[in-house]
Amino acid sequence: MTPAQLSRTVLHAVRRAAAEGELGAARGSSDLPQRVTVESPPRRGPGDYAVSVAFRLAGPSGMAPYDVARVLLARLVRQDGILAAEIAGGGFLNVTLDDRARAELVAELSRPAGSAPGSPDRDTAAADTPAADTPAADIAHWSAATGDAPAALAVRTAQASPLFRVQYAHARARAYSRNARDLGFRGEPHASADVGPEPETGTEPETGTEPDTRPGQDARAVYGSRGAALLALLADHRRVSEQSDPAGHARHLVAVGDAFFDFHDQCPPLPRGDEKPGAVHRARLALVEATGTVLAGGLTQLGVSAPAHL
């Protein structure tokens, strides 16, 4: 479920609630929003998306935002693709997708902008560019977008340069895809539905990872809490790129890169040691590939190269 799809779902819930008199004085179309903004949750925690429409409806309805949110929550949790919803911050709705909806979102994000399902392979269709012999042009474009000092950007380390950190995250994502192909598997967004049973009682998960889960449970156990945070940022990228200035867009790419590093440290996309590639690896690799696609597209929009090797 993409942000646009959830926006339509929430808007439908608003209109139905108003038509049935559940939103106080808000009844006519002039009282209701024409669109609903869907964002990533402002803080790491429950929810793939955050919706603030209850605050917009508080005035026309004559109700407190929290009470508006309660009305909408009761309707949203009955919708296909939504695993759970909860109220936060006095009226924000944090929405958690179910496994199927989350897998569909990962698949959508893995496709480069403008492509359709069944279009060329994710790896070859993405806007990757060769590593530049000199980073001067990239530094100039990033500096123009963000105001970052070119001298600081010229220090090509992830710690010193946000530009290099984003490019390195992209190259790292592409490297995972290449390594997975060498191991004989590819990313599959819907593989999360095939994840096997939880470890037996008394067994401990490998250090630095989160346990797998049974089919039908919250996919956070496949992606980890940090993977869920990464997916929320990826889903929010289109809104940010369309509505933010170049500096805001660049900051969002940095946040995506940082979340990606956190994710692959917590939930390794590739098997370790004698471990065989399984459904959990295919699902995690799909999220890695979606990250690479989003970073490549974002860097290209800023006029910066997206090298597949660094």
Automatic annotation (TrEMBL):
SUPFAM superfamilies: Anticodon-binding domain of a subclass of class I aminoacyl-tRNA synthetases (SSF47323), Arginyl-tRNA synthetase (ArgRS), N-terminal 'additional' domain (SSF55190). Residues 22-45, 110-133, 180-218 are annotated as: Disordered. Residues 166-310 form the DALR anticodon binding domain. One of its GO terms (cellular component) is cytoplasm. It comes from the Bacteria. InterPro entries: Arg-tRNA-synth_N, Arg-tRNA-synth_N_sf, DALR_anticod-bd, tRNAsynth_Ia_anticodon-bd. It holds the Pfam family DALR_1. One of its GO terms (molecular function) is ATP binding. Residues 4-97 form the Arginyl tRNA synthetase N-terminal domain. Keywords: ATP-binding, Ligase, Nucleotide-binding. GO terms for biological process: arginyl-tRNA aminoacylation. Residues 180-191 have a biased composition (Basic and acidic residues). This is Arginine--tRNA ligase. It comes from Streptomyces abyssalis.
